[in-house]
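2024-03-11 09:14:02 DEBUG pipeline.ingest accepted 1 chain
2024-03-11 09:14:02 DEBUG pipeline.ingest length=483
2024-03-11 09:14:03 DEBUG pipeline.predict start
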Amino acid sequence: MSAGLWLVFFFFTVVADAKYPPGGSYHLLSLRQNMKISKSKAELPFHFQTHYFPQNLDHFSFQPESYRIFHQKYLISSHFWRKGGPIFVYTGNEGDIEWFASNTGFMLDIAPKFEALLVFIEHRFYGESKPPRSAKAMGYLNSQQALADYAILIRSLKQNLSSEASPVVVLGGSYGGMLAAWFRLKYPHIAIGALASSAPILQFDKIVPSSSFYDSISQDFKSSREAGVFSTMKDGLQELSKKFRSCKGLHNVTAASQWLDSAFVNTAMVNYPTPANFMAPLPAYPVEEMCKIIDGFPPEASNLDRAFAAASLYYNYSGSEKCFDIENETDPHGVNGWYWQACTEMVMPISCSNQSMFQPFENDDKGDQEYCLREYGVKPRPHWITTEFGGQRIEMVLKRFGSNIIFSNGMQDPWSREGILKNISSSIIALVTKKGAHHADLRAATKEDPEWLKEQRRQEVAEMEKWISEYYSDLRQEEQGSY
């Protein structure tokens, strides 16, 4: 990496600011914000139908309010399904379910082979699956309620299809991957297995170093160019506004910092080996392209020019943007859903070490708590996820009671170091690729896919075949009275 890029990051770093949610939660939300899903609906894959399922607001109490109903959106395709065949369920993330269906082509690719029914379930409080809005209702937005939604919907669907013996495999990426893994652990009687792609289930309760996220991004860029040196830069807000082509005047350096930070962080996450439109139109291996842009400037060029040009690869690769709305990012979820989850259960601390190309900073637990109290009147519960789902000494725990989970990660994904990177047992396996990015394996196959990605998917299919074959074998024995 060139000296210019190191300079860029010394100046433009994550700045503590009350408008951003706690810790690593900004980066998960940032990924969603830059999908542009708030501007246009994703196109549904072929043969999908949209349905709505009545869900209780609260699955875990029997108070009158718990029976309030909201309608949960789900997508279904029976185009390849053979009755009695497997059901593949995508455990929805923090956003519109159409978007995830349109970017999870792996499920459509393998459906004919398995003669599988495909179901994509939207997460409560996101997309169209929103209960009545109130401060009290927000208390029912959490992963445990979401998993119960999935369990109830799946059971009802199998009954309505008169196919209760169909095996269910859950799949998900990122937060959805976390949910898929947790669903298999919490509801093993409903799902026979799970594919959890890019699932940072260890980014809680100080299980992994809080600097892992930024360390991984730094390594991505280091592997593309030689490391340079740090320096400083002193440009005023007026020059920044002009250089960044801000649609409106730039009033604080934090917005510019966050704008650049998002470009480099998100590009590292989606450093796919083929051109993609996952979060924004980008070329193959965009991290390398960013570095080429920076290194292509003459020595006398300003570092601000380098920074803006590199960020523009992410924000304007298509060349359609005339200006950038740097200070007015909005929450595409409409209810600040992920902000709320970050302030309650999804406490994912992030810091930046002095070994990173970013300016070092510490995770601010006190500041996070103040933000959450001010915005929502709640305190984060940093130990809740590990209490509910585990995580500490996970190898020792899961090999004694867990089974049939694939944890897939690409080491160029900043979230990979917070995931499971080695086999836990013969049926809880880690598929790790050196060049993989954020749940690259769940994307639709293309002719340009490298062999390592094809092999990763082949291994996933082989594991799923094994689970399903064993299930049907056990089912036959049960029907014959062997059990």
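2024-03-11 09:14:41 DEBUG pipeline.report Residues 49-205+386-479 form a domain with the Rossmann fold fold (CATH 3.40.50.1820).
2024-03-11 09:14:41 DEBUG pipeline.predict end
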